[in-house]
Amino acid sequence: MANKKPRGRETAWDMVLSMSAVIATVGVIMLLAWRPQEEVKQQVDYDTAVAGAVIAQTWPISIPETVPTGYEATSARLEPESYGDMGDIRWILGFQTQDNQYVSLWQSDGPVGPVVSAATNNAPCEGSVTINGQAWSKCEIDKPLTRAFVKTEGEVTSIVAGTAQWDELQRFAESLVVAKP
Question: What is the pLDDT of residues 124-152, one digit of tens each?
Fold first, then answer.
């Protein structure tokens, strides 16, 4: 019989060699299978979405007077309000800033409480600020980071929210005008 090591008495060196072989094999497979991924940005037809929303809606749709330099539209849509009753509508505009922060506008004729909770990630609203002569509530939460200004006029609640700094959100809210057909 051959001189064989008894089972259970393998050395630490044998374990190191086995682990090295496994790691090398996994590394080769990962190198062969790895493909760089580019960030895919959704194309948003902002002008068409605005025109369609203005025609379809019975209350004034707001848009920024001019889209700020460096902003890229990430969403623009008129859709049923999922936090309201049948027939409630929301208008959503979303932008990514040149600093990779987000700014959005959410307008809805749905019930104020659920709409504000959804649009602000349940941020508590404390204090207010006057923007263009109108009082807006100021809401903020750290996780997920959300800053928001909220106002209600008649049946429509408007929320300017995002991860951008307060001054940038305020400039965006100041720029809002009623979209013309």
Answer: 999 999 999 999 999 999 999 999 999 99
d(CA 110, CA 122): 16
CA gap 45, 50 in Å, rounded: 9
Per 3-state DSSP, what percentage of the chain is helix, strand, and coil (rounded to 5)? 30, 35, 40
Please tell me the distance from the alpha carbon of residue 142 to that of residue 140, in angstroms, as a whole number. 7
**Residue 6: CB atoms within 10 Å:** 6
Is the pLDDT reported for residue 34 higher than 60? yes
Report yes or no on whether pTM surpasses 0.85: no
Domains of the chain as residue ranges with CATH: 46-178 (3.30.200.100)
Contact 44, 90 (CB under 8 A): no
- The closest of 177, 174, 168, 181 to 69, measured between CA atoms, is 168
